[in-house]
Amino acid sequence: MGKKDPPNVKDAAVVEGEYAAAAAREKTYADRPDQNTAFGNTRWTQEMVIDPATGEKVNKWVQNQTLNKDQQQIFDSQTQRNQDLSRMSAGMGDRIQQEMGTPLNWEQFGDVIDFDPTANRQRAEDAAYGRSTQRLDPQFEKSRTDLERRLTGRGLRVGDSAYDSAMTNYSTGKNDAYEMARMGSVGEGRQEVGLNLSTNERANALRQQKIQEYLGKRGQSLSEANALSGSMNTAEMASTYGGGG
Questions:
Q1: Which of 36, 168, 174, 233 is deepest in the core (most CB within 10 A)?
Q2: What's the rounded Cα separation, in Å, for the pair 141 and 241?
Q3: DSSP string, 82-112
Q4: Is residue 147 within 8 Å of residue 170, measured between CB atoms?
Q5: How far apart are CA 142 and CA 153, in angstroms?
Q6: Could you give the CA distance from residue 11 to residue 144 in angstroms, rounded to a whole number?
């Protein structure tokens, strides 16, 4: 039997490469159809150019998009608007620098007002009780002196049942009066704590409000600049009007 020639691997690779190249060209061509949309149309063109890397001739694809008349007017108007707003935003740099170029001044607002209900209530009760006893002390001192004078005028002395009974009634009345003063001071202390707590809460809320207004004014120009630049940007316009494949 005669000896068979070995397969030509090189020729097979060349043929396979040509098939692969042809398939790639067909796929590329199929992926670039002309498109007609509500915005306009997109057309693909190709031309033969020299690949600077290899020196070989290759196809160069070019995509051309054309907006319809109405969409072109909208695009031009939006572009002009963006340019106008962008110039306005850029022109606010001095204002932003003036407002935000200095350190924040927190000292103008003072410290947060702390409030200890227990300590404040005790001080309020002591003060209220002190005011009451300032009135009661001289009253009961005079009452005791008058009572002792009347009892001795009747010939009664310490140890006599009538004398001791009268002094006991006096002491009971005095104790009741001071107890009423103490209970009243508790009520006044509770009321004072409520008023102080409410006052402190309002003061701290007002302080926080002033801080927010201060920060708002400080960043006003920056907010305006961001708002001006927040219109449809180039990327959004490209997404809206762009096409390709």
A1: 174
A2: 99
A3: HHHHHHHHHTTHHHHHHHHSS----GGG---
A4: yes
A5: 16
A6: 137
